[in-house]
């Protein structure tokens, strides 16, 4: 689909001879958002890693704005517009916050000054080394560094994992702010309520295959699919999905 920001179809990938995701396909337009849901071990992170060229792609097509990239190296995918904040954060411990940002910088709307506006606490610690930051600050830096590549689409892999509730609230507000500014993103997240409230579209993975694809609001209105595939019995208070 030439008019899609991201289009993938019939993607089959994994590690070595093991296939983890199979027959994956979806499209995202400019500025759109997608929640990737499912139990642990169902292929969510593998999907993100596949988009970044970190797995063994067995079959399938992937394109950004009509240009195929499934055989391109990771750096070329970044140049095409994919920004990645990995689950492990990947902060350079021996570099300062400013240096962590500088190594990822590409020309465009996002620069160090803008990321410091988005994350004021990073501005206060701009000269601290990566290993001197808290877990929440490291997560902020991971997202800020991804923004420094000036991406068309952010890949956020478990950005709220292991964070204190007050930091989760702050990160949620930040993601909402990015969405309001038209930044598209794919969000892998175990906090299902938050993920659905932050996104317009959602997919659920079960054993590496898509078992639901549709609007996030559909899952909010009828959580029976979530109960079946994600195990949300007793979970209440799903917040409305991000506005269209």
Which features characterize this protein?
six-stranded mixed beta sheet, 244 residues, 26% strand, alpha/beta, globular
Outline of the structure:
With about 240 residues, the protein is an alpha/beta fold.
Report on the structure:
- The chain is α/β, with parallel strands linked by helices and 244 residues long.
- Helix content is 33%, strand content 26%.
- The protein has two domains: 1-81 and 152-244, Rossmann fold; 88-150, no CATH class.
- The chain has helices at 44-51, 74-80, 97-102, 112-118, 120-124, 135-147, 165-180, 192-198, 216-221, 224-229, and strands spanning 6-15, 18-28, 33-37, 56-64, 67-68, 82-85, 153-157, 184-188, 201-206, 209-215.
- The longest helix has 16 residues, at 165-180.
- The protein starts with 5 loop residues before the first strand and ends in a 15-residue tail after the last helix.
Anisotropy-based shape: globular
The helix-and-strand class reads alpha/beta
> Mean pLDDT, rounded to whole units?
93
Strand order of the largest sheet: 6-7-8-3-9-10
For the record, the count of structural domains works out to 2
Low-confidence blocks of residues: 233-237
Strand content: 25-35%
Which percent bin holds the helix content?
A: 25-40%
Q: Termini, distance in Å?
A: 21 Å
Spell the H/E element sequence: EEEHEEHEHHHHEHEHEEHH
The CATH superfamily of the largest domain bears the name P-loop containing nucleotide triphosphate hydrolases
Number of strands: 10
Put simply, the count of helices is 10
CATH class of the largest domain: Alpha Beta
CATH topology of the largest domain: Rossmann fold
CATH architecture of the largest domain: 3-Layer(aba) Sandwich
Mind describing the biggest β-sheet?
A: 6 strands, mixed
C-alpha-based Rg, rounded: 17 Å
């Amino acid at each position: 689909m030439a008019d899609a920001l991201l289009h993938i179809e019939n993607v089959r990938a994994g590690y070595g001879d093991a296939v983890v995701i199979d027959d994956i396909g979806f499209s995202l337009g400019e500025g759109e958002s997608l929640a990737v849901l499912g139990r642990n071990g169902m292929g969510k992170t593998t999907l993100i890693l596949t988009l970044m060229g970190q797995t063994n792609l067995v079959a399938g097509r992937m394109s950004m704005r009509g240009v195929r990239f499934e055989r391109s190296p990771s750096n070329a995918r970044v140049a095409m517009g994919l920004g990645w904040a990995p689950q492990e954060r990947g902060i350079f411990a021996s570099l300062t916050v400013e240096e962590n940002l500088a190594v990822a910088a590409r020309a465009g709307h996002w620069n160090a000054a803008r990321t410091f506006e988005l994350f004021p606490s990073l501005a206060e610690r701009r000269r601290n080394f990566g290993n001197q930051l808290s877990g929440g600050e490291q997560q902020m830096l991971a997202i800020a560094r991804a923004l420094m590549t000036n991406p068309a689409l952010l890949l956020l892999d478990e950005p709220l994992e292991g964070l204190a509730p007050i930091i989760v609230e702050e990160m949620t507000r930040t993601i909402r702010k990015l969405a309001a500014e038209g930044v598209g993103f794919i969000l892998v997240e175990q906090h299902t309520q938050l993920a659905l409230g932050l996104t317009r579209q959602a997919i659920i993975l079960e054993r590496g295959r898509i078992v639901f694809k549709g609007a996030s609001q559909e899952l909010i209105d009828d959580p029976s699919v979530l109960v079946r595939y994600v195990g949300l019995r007793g979970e209440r208070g799903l917040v409305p999905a991000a506005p269209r």
